[in-house]
Design brief:
The protein has 182 residues and is α/β, with parallel strands linked by helices. The protein is built from seven helices and eight strands. It is 38% helix and 16% strand. Helix 1 links the parallel strand 1 and strand 2. The radius of gyration is 16 Å and the shape is globular.
Length: 182
């Protein structure tokens, strides 16, 4: 998930939320590694954390619920393992990253969405697929670094590029080794 320096930050955050939290992050082509240009990184991070904090976890049958549970206990255990390792490897947890405190949700597979700032591409949250509500934000300095990091993956990925300049995004998309660019 690439956010260029000319992106509308509010639109980028809304798109990131839709991408990462759809089906509680249990979508193979969901955004996972968020590479954000240094010029707008702090604004993006601040707005994303504010929006994630507003997400209401709960019964997926309730109209008030914005985020339901993970599908299985093993998926929850894996997300907890990855988040713990991500912190141990120097990832800065900005929000969430735990089971909810609400007594009604503790016994289910619920997980408060985690927002991380990652400064090491060897961090597990950059290397492994997180199949749950975890945002790994990476500050990048320009398109060259963005392309290098985007292509630094063993997986056949999908890619989203957020920019106000469609031609620029299309040109950049041709440099990304991925199955799909949106």
């Amino acid at each position: 998930f690439l956010v260029l320096d000319d992106a509308n930050v509010d639109k980028a955050v809304a798109t990131a939320l839709d991408s990462r939290l759809n089906n509680c992050g249990q979508v193979c082509c969901a955004g996972k590694r968020f590479l954000i240009d240094d010029k707008i990184f702090d604004e993006f991070k601040k707005k994303l954390v504010e929006k994630v904090a507003d997400y209401k976890l709960g019964d997926p049958m309730s109209d008030e619920t914005m985020l339901g549970p993970l599908a299985r206990p093993d998926l929850l255990a894996n997300i907890e393992r990855q988040v713990k390792e991500g912190v141990n490897q120097g990832g800065k947890l900005l929000f969430g990253g735990k089971r909810p405190e609400d007594a009604n949700l503790k016994s289910g597979n619920f997980y408060v969405p985690a927002v991380f700032e990652i400064d090491n591409p060897e961090n597990i949250l950059f290397r492994e697929e997180t199949f749950g509500p975890v945002f790994a934000l990476v500050r990048v300095k320009g398109e060259e670094e963005m392309v290098r990091l985007a292509n630094d993956s063993e997986y056949g990925l999908g890619c989203t590029i957020v920019s106000e300049n469609v031609e620029r995004a299309q040109k950049l998309g041709k440099k990304i080794d991925t199955g799909t660019v949106v």
